[in-house]
Write a structure and sequence with these properties.
315 residues; alpha/beta; 7-stranded mixed sheet
Length: 315
């Protein structure tokens, strides 16, 4: 496959990451890049911007537009199908972008990151895993208790075991990424009757179809509001450790995470959030906390109330 941008060629070993964003959320991309820089030196973050021109490349950032990836695999189908649905377009293009980058002779391993992730400690061990395994995944670590909080038990089956905000792959995993892209071209939607949850539910099948797939069990990875109970935050010698042993590697600062930090359910991660927010403000001066601390959508509250009303525990 021809390489669209000659600046893709790098000198020496590098840790390669990628993300997809709209122009309105690029301040989060810059914050993510800042965290990668603080926790590791030789890295490149490849950024696909859906609704704007490519930015200028620098030693750590590489920029792409839709035109760069439009002929990769099933990209024409995905772009045509979801061109008016930016979220679904962004989700469905993840494996396309990863395979586009893996076609570059200088890139043997790539990790996709949602732009609302932020790193707090060394991430090099993730690339070490990609020396051995074709695909790496991080579980949600939703609760699995059938006696309490069963909504989270069912969320494993409804939303998926693995979080699609993080996935890594090497060239041996290109076939699996191609399969994932084809799944997203087929359907990228929330549809419980079909057993679908956007791009994410398909990840459940990856360890089945790819014997070299690996689940990251380091509980400091992909911390979020949904795994407070299963990835216990504890203070050990002045440092937050997960289950008393794992350092915080990266946090997924989506709406649920931010809400649970500020309502006191996840208070030990508040200093981490404050560092994240301060970094965001470097790239978006005047950013208000209310832009990130959004109330729970009324429809989500209603869905939970209906679920709770209909649920009966019988043993």
């Amino acid at each position: 496959m021809p390489i669209a941008n000659k600046s893709l060629y790098f000198a020496g070993p590098m840790n390669h990451f990628c993300t997809i964003s709209t122009v309105s959320h690029l301040y989060k991309v810059y914050a993510l890049a800042q965290s990668l820089k603080e926790q590791g030196k030789d890295f490149a973050l490849h950024i696909l911007v859906l609704d704007g021109p490519r930015g200028e490349d620098n030693p750590n950032l590489r920029w792409y537009s839709i035109n760069d990836v439009k002929n990769t695999g099933v990209a024409p189908i995905i772009i045509s199908k979801y061109k008016n649905q930016k979220d679904r377009l962004r989700w469905a293009l993840k494996p396309v972008l990863m395979n586009f980058l893996l076609a570059n002779p200088a890139i043997e391993k790539i990790i996709y990151l949602d732009n609302d992730l932020y790193f707090f400690s060394d991430y090099s061990f993730l690339f070490d895993r990609l020396n051995i395994y074709s695909i790496i995944l991080t579980p949600h670590y939703y609760k699995t208790d059938p006696e309490s909080g069963q909504n989270w038990l069912e969320a494993n089956l409804r939303a998926g075991l693995y979080n699609a905000g993080f996935i890594g792959g090497n060239r041996k995993g290109a076939g699996t990424l191609k399969w994932w892209a084809e799944c997203c071209a087929y359907r990228c939607e929330k549809n419980s009757l079909r057993g679908l949850f956007d791009d994410q539910k398909y990840l459940d099948l990856i360890p089945v179809i790819d014997e070299s797939a690996f689940m990251i069990r380091h509980k400091g990875c992909n911390l979020a509001g949904w795994n407070i109970e299963t990835c216990r935050r504890e203070m050990v010698d002045g440092e937050v450790k997960i289950d008393g042993q794992y350092p915080v590697v990266f946090i997924h600062f989506n709406d649920i995470t931010v809400r649970r930090i500020f309502n006191g359910e996840d208070a030990l991660l508040k200093p981490h959030y404050e560092k994240y927010e301060n970094t965001l403000k470097q790239f978006k001066p005047g950013l208000k906390r209310s832009e990130l601390l959004k109330p729970e959508p009324a429809k989500d509250k209603m869905k939970y109330m209906v679920w709770k009303f209909l649920t009966e525990r019988r043993f």
